[in-house]
Specification:
binds 2-phosphoglyceric acid, six-stranded mixed beta sheet, about 280 residues, Rossmann fold, single chain
Length: about 280
Amino acid sequence: MFALSRSTVSLASRAALRRSFVVSQQAADKHTLVLVRHGESTWNLENKFTGWYDCPLSPKGHEEVKEAGQLLKKEGIKPDIAHTSLLQRAIRTLWHVLEQSELMWIPVQKAWQLNERHYGALQGLDKQETVDKFGKDQVLVWRRSYDVPPPTVDRSSPHHPDNDPRYAGFEFADEFTESLATTLDRVVPYWNESIVPQIKDGKTVMIAAHGNSLRALVKHLDGIDESTISELNIPTGTPLIYELDDNLKPIPQEGAIAPLQGRYLGDQDAIRARIEGVKNQTK
Ligand SMILES: O=C(O)[C@@H](CO)OP(=O)(O)O
């Protein structure tokens, strides 16, 4: 009763082969990319402009990113390689996420090009005091306009990258600051040169970075225009999952919060509250 004729078996196995080909084709057509902004830092907590200042995670930040790692593990997403900045809040975030998802062994590349946007002479200032001094509109221009940079620092400032050994060998302007546009000018080349080849090679890539370096990257990925990007705030410690097609265009994900096409993992109400929290740092 269980005997199948030769032709039935070969028909069945050909159908199975076809199915597995379709499945592997679909898998080959899709590339998973994981983005995560670092957890809350001590200067986020103190509401200070941070930029390239190298502050650690706050106790809450450590917890946020441990949870991010558990969410990734639960979702079964396993990065093959990770990239992060030269700043400890992003590096530590990556370590926690990899530890929680049992992937501490994967290769990690660190690059200043993934750093937060340099906040020039605003670094270290209290955000609310800066609003009180310069007005809400001016501060919003510095925080969220596309190409108006904050005031610069020169080489006499401890915030100038020439005074920090980790940037030795790189050249920065005497009068230094960054807008989102100039941040994008270093994030996107790094993406194209160091990350795209890995994705095309079939790797699942994770990037642990910063609010504004990730805003620059998603502007590029999602093709967000300059006025819409000024409204976008990225929550701390929340995995953002993209599925990219073979041309590395995002495949819109169910539950994505516009204008992003990737989806955040976790409690969506809590995520929206975190997004509002970033926005409201300067009321
Ligand atoms: O201070 C900073 O470096 C960034 C991120 O924390 O702040 P903002 O969201 O104001 O650009």
